[in-house]
Write a structure and sequence with these properties.
The complex is a heterodimer of chains A (262) and B (388). By secondary structure, chain A is mainly alpha-helical. Chain A is built from nine helices and two strands; from the N terminus they run H-H-H-H-E-E-H-H-H-H-H. In chain A, strand 1 and strand 2 form a beta hairpin. In chain B, the strands form three sheets. Chain B has a six-stranded mixed sheet, with helices on both faces. Chain B is built from 15 helices and 14 strands. Chain B has 388 residues and is an alpha/beta fold. Chain B is 40% helix and 20% strand. The chains are: A mainly alpha (262), B alpha/beta (388). The interface between A and B is large, with 34 and 39 residues.
Chain lengths: 262, 388
């Protein structure tokens, strides 16, 4: 309930001042390269490098990063086990027959395939987390505007963004008030408290919404939502670093295209 | 006397299916005045204030802005709201956009300013409230005082003539409240008319030009602060407490001391009252200390370190956001940040010198206040401007 939002980490990260486009180029480029690669080496390289960038350059706390990574990591690991065991191949790498009617075998192809998929997933994840942790939403709004996202959608997105934090704040306040008065002490009590929490937060956010309209009216709202602000200037150093990263990754994608684990 | 900017004529308002919140109120406010609207909870302060920018339309009676009755069609309301800035009590309810820059730009964008005009207006407003460098921050990561400043900047960016603040100091720490009150003073010096509603008598008493006491939707009293807050029966009725300085003044008077007619509004005034009461000579020192004034806008900045080095014992005060910013930038430790002129005069009386950092508009204010003191006390405190 009192967790820090990803957004808050992104607002304070070490790469905050780097131009948004440069950061997006690094992240999106990495994802595309992960998809293009036919070997496990390039995605692995990308994952390691971006993890390094997140921890060393963006100065995100290692624990936070690990917590973020662990969920997709396990998900990928379990899917990959299934892929390894189920997909077929001609060359048997390992097999085990515990009973006469059951035999488990892993082929070289399935093993290669599994490791490749796994590396791709963590490469892509690292790139996504890199974007999430270094580029706050507020900077993405500016990019969205440049990409000609319709005004109506943008206005909505921005109001929703503001409302999320407002409602979250209301939620925390109400929840704390309930806990202070022993609201969640028993199972029955928890269900009741949760119901009142939902109800009162709904009403409070409705109120806040009406206030918002009034606040906008009081400031001469005429259908326009302020949409300005700039991202940091393109710094040649960061541009060269990202260019180098993407170039190296591309080269690795090309030269390692036929390399397999076994 | 300056012209009337806002007038209420016998206004009444009843909430739908509710009680009558405003029961026939008339008053007028002149341009450049500082008005404190005081009263207990539920007296109708907020309702009344929401009428000033047309958010609530009175059932009967009329509100006049600039001697023209407010009309409630969309176009006129927009014009009115550009000129009457409203700062809500809870800044969270006023801040709309996801970043500080976008929020402050909200008004100007909707008024149809050009991009460069918006930029100037926003930068200027943020500079004014001392939030330079906060442009890209999201509001939910700001402190209460900072949010309040964002809300104020959002209103200032539209350059209104009349500023209405609902409880400007609620939820702020004492130093934050003092900063806000000083910001209001600064705005007032720039010619803006300011109306605040508050429970904080101690802040309103020295600040306001006039106080309006509201009770149960009616005006109980409308007068200069020492009269408005100086009647124990009214103060009790309005669920307020008497300002401590007035309280002491009246207690001294009850004990039969001969006191000057002018009631004390600041500690400096109080000391003068005490000096008169106990027939002491006001000045302990034959030579009062000098008050030096440094104008952070126009005096050359390199002249200050030399002055500080040669006057190590001086107390230093800063008036206004820019002066405080300057002090923070140049790592000057401030002794006073609120009621600076009076504090410096108090130092001067006991023979100590002091320095006031301030902006161009406020220099005149220092001279005025010192002159006012000089005429009343008969002491002449020298004021010097550092630099050319």
């Amino acid at each position: 309930m009192y967790e820090k939002f990803l957004e808050d980490i992104a607002q304070a990260n070490g790469l905050r001042e780097v131009n948004t486009y440069v950061k997006l180029m690094a992240g999106l480029g990495a994802i595309i390269l992960c998809l293009l690669s036919t070997s496990f080496i390039a995605p692995l390289f990308i994952a390691i490098l971006l993890t390094g960038a997140i921890i060393l350059l963006a100065q995100v706390d290692m624990r936070t990063y690990a917590e973020l990574f662990i969920v997709p990591f396990w998900f990928a690991a379990m899917s990959v086990i299934v892929i390894i065991l189920l997909s077929g191949g001609s060359e048997v790498y390992w097999s085990w027959t515990p009973f006469s009617w059951l035999s488990i075998s892993i082929s070289v192809e399935s093993l290669n395939e599994g490791i490749f998929v796994f590396c791709r997933v963590i490469g892509g994840m690292a790139a996504l987390i890199f974007i999430a942790l270094t580029t706050p939403m507020t900077d993405l709004f500016i990019v969205m505007r440049r990409c000609r996202v319709p005004e109506v959608v943008l206005d909505l997105v921005m109001m929703i963004y503001r409302a999320i934090f407002m409602i979250m704040h209301l939620l925390v306040l109400t929840y704390q008030a309930q806990v202070m008065r022993l609201g969640y002490s028993s199972f029955r009590e928890s269900i009741e408290s949760f119901a009142t929490l939902c109800g009162s937060v709904f009403i409070a956010s409705w109120d806040a919404g009406e206030d918002l309209v009034r606040a906008m009216d009081a400031r001469c709202y005429a259908g326009k939502f302020a949409m300005f602000g700039e991202t940091g200037p393109v710094n040649s150093y960061s541009l060269v670093a990202v260019g180098l990263f993407l170039l190296t990754s591309s080269v690795i994608v090309v030269i390692t295209r036929d390399i397999v684990v076994i | 006397m300056s012209r009337i900017i806002l007038e209420a004529r016998e206004i009444r308002y009843r909430y739908p299916r509710g009680m009558e919140a405003i029961q026939g109120i008339s008053f007028h406010i002149r341009k450049g005045e500082k008005i404190a609207l005081v009263g207990p909870n539920g007296a109708g302060k907020s309702t009344l204030m929401l009428m000033f920018n047309g958010m609530i339309r009175p059932d009967s009676g009329a509100i006049l802005f600039d001697n023209v009755p407010v009309s409630y069609d969309k176009g006129s309301l927009r014009k009115l709201r550009k000129r009457v800035g409203f700062v809500l009590q809870n800044p969270d309810r006023q801040i709309i956009a996801p970043t500080v820059y976008q929020d402050v730009a909200f008004g100007p964008v909707n008024l149809g300013y050009s991009e460069s005009e918006i930029k100037t207006a926003v930068t200027e407003a943020l500079r004014y409230v001392g939030l330079e460098g906060f442009e890209r921050r999201p509001p939910h990561l700001l402190s209460g005082g900072e949010k309040k400043r964002v809300a104020i900047a959002g209103v200032l960016a539209m350059d209104p003539d009349l500023l209405v603040f609902d409880e400007p100091t609620s939820g702020l720490d004492p130093s934050g409240s003092e900063d806000i009150m000083e910001l209001l003073d600064e705005l007032n010096l720039q010619g803006k008319t300011i109306i605040i509603s508050t429970h904080d008598i101690e802040l309103a008493y020295p600040w306001a030009d006039r106080a309006i006491l509201l009770l149960e939707g009616k005006i109980l009293q409308e007068a200069i602060p020492d009269v408005a807050f100086g009647r124990p029966e009214y103060v009790r009725q309005a669920h307020l407490s008497m300002p401590i300085l007035l309280d002491i003044y009246f207690e001294l008077k009850k004990r039969g001391y001969m006191l000057p007619e002018r009631k004390p509004r600041t500690v400096l005034d109080m000391l003068q009252v005490i000096d008169v009461a106990f027939e002491k000579t006001p000045c302990c020192h034959a030579f009062p200390g000098t008050i030096s004034v440094f104008d952070v806008d126009s005096s050359p900045h390199d002249s200050l370190p030399g002055w500080l080095a040669s006057h190590p014992d001086s107390s230093i005060g800063a008036m206004g956001t820019r002066a405080k910013q300057h002090a923070a930038d140049t790592q000057i430790t401030l002794d006073f940040t609120y009621g600076v002129i009076d504090k410096c005069i108090l130092r001067a009386i006991i023979g100590e010198s002091s320095l006031i950092l301030t902006s161009t508009g406020m220099v005149r204010r220092v001279e005025q206040r010192v002159l006012e003191f000089d005429t009343i006390s008969g002491i002449s405190v020298p004021v010097r401007l550092i630099g050319p």
